[in-house]
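Cross-posting from the chemistry board since nobody answered there.

I work mostly on the small-molecule side, so proteins are not my area. We synthesized adenosine-5'-triphosphate and want a rough idea of how it might sit in this target. Sequence and SMILES are below. Is it possible to get a predicted 3D structure of the two together?
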Amino acid sequence: MLISLLRRYLRPYRGMVVLAGLLQLVEVVAMLLLPTLNASVIDRGVVAGDEGHILWMGALMVLVAAAAAGAGLGSVLCGARAALALGRDLRAEVFHRVQSLSAQQVERIGGSSLTTRSTNDVQQVETVALDGLTTLAAVPAICLGSVALALSQDVPLSFVLLAFIPVITVLVWAAQRRLTAVYGRIQPAVDRLNRIVGEQVSGARVVRAFARDAHERERFGRTNAELLGHSLRAGRLFAVMFPAVSLASGAGTVAVVWLGAVRVDGGEIGIGTVNAFVEYLVYITWSITMATFVFLVVPRASVSARRIREVLDTVADLTPPVPARPGRTRGTLLLRGVTYRYPGAELPSVHGVDLRAGPGETVAVIGSTGSGKTTLLNLVLRGADVTEGAVLVNGVDVRELDPAELTATVGVVPQRAHLFSGTVAANLRFGDPDATDAELWRALGVAQARELVENLPGGLAAEIAGGGANLSGGQRQRLTIARTLVRRPAVYLFDDCFSALDPDTEAALLAALRAETAAATVLVVAQRVSTVRHADRIVVLDDGRVVGCGPHEELLATCETYRDIASSQHAGLGAP
Ligand SMILES: Nc1ncnc2c1ncn2[C@@H]1O[C@H](COP(=O)(O)OP(=O)(O)OP(=O)(O)O)[C@@H](O)[C@H]1O
């Protein structure tokens, strides 16, 4: 999986990869030549007393060393460029895939896990590509080249090198197997830790209010300790691995020197040859150690690659069929026998709902908590797709409608007001970057937020904290309403977004909204009768089914559920 991911994402940079490999080869050849040249300096220059040979070989060695250094530098630069570009592309693709997933798919994988996968996991793969491209390609060349050159110098002594390579390879392989298992547990633990930290940061007030600090600290501590345990196990393997390689290398050097001394004594080889063998051994040890280092991070990267692949292979269950169709009418909304069952749920949350709204109409959906109101709205913007029936916007099934047209047509104010860090103006221009200041103020006026923004230091330039944390719930709601009004969509969806407003502000806002959206199609979801009573039609939901539909007065007379809701809220029974 790791290999296929690397192959796919390095493909655009294969020129750079090939160049890095070629330069590494040049570096290796130059490096391998040095011990042979050195052996010649010793055996044919120093021992034979040939000063000219020493000078000539010395100059050649300087040139070869310079070539090795230059090629090494070039190969690192090319390899790093390719690996970092791979990281950037992979991160971007994971990010775009995450954006295309439905809410259920995000829920299934987990928000915090998706964050870890887009950042930490991509980084693991990037690191392996970086290490691999800058060092790994040289390893087989160094091992094979060293053995070939050693064989050309002395066959019996070469057997020491040949015996040394499998010992080191087995050591690396054994450590790698153990580490794969350990890293398989580390990444999910990082996910859990991220989730706990995220929950504790966003829910800090609740934790404090319920005096659950100690419990939350204990929950965090347990996962943190678990992560420490796994990391220590990985660290112990690293700690054992490198001394083991050094030990094997030391034993190899002793064997080369001992056997070399015997053969020098017998006059079969010169001292320079023994010296060259020791250097080859150092090269082999060095290259395998570098490879060990790469191989030891391979297990973690393999786990990360699997987790990344899971995201990339998740086919967004909202992908529209190609070609997407343009709408036939503007601003119409039609729900035809809509049923939706959440994945894994036994029963549908909404059953056979019919609803129609057109330009100039305001339709409201009311129902007690959990009756399916938000679920219904989610189906319009394809937060999920219907299980049965159809949702039509502009006269076309939303599953076939051009997604750009769908989002341009429908503007939603969500139940949970969310603002982004940045200025008030930047937040309001979220859906229309070209909106003028005058348009922003107009939208703020309708949303009853003009005074609020005027009183903020800097007005439209005032800074909002992430999530709108420096504003009250009602202030956030009014700004998110203004944000949608700035876009002037043909269809407005208001998802119970007036609940944090006091009655006077709500009444003023609804009156201003009626004027502002007079020509648009409006669907309002609410629990309060005061919010919906002026709608042209009110659809009453009970346990996901429509139990009444009509204007306020008619429903008071004909729909028991509506009457119950109204009386429980003391909401002007019979009053205009
Ligand atoms: N992500 C989900 N997975 C499974 N079931 C869900 C999910 N979201 C909502 N439900 C279930 O669907 C039903 C309808 O929920 P929905 O949020 O649409 O109700 P609602 O009428 O908007 O409620 P409220 O007024 O409290 O916001 C509920 O029974 C709820 O438990």
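Reply from a structural biologist on the board:
Welcome over. Reading the output above for you: The chain has two domains: 2-312, 333-568. Residues 571-576 have pLDDT under 50 and may be disordered. Happy to explain the token format if needed.
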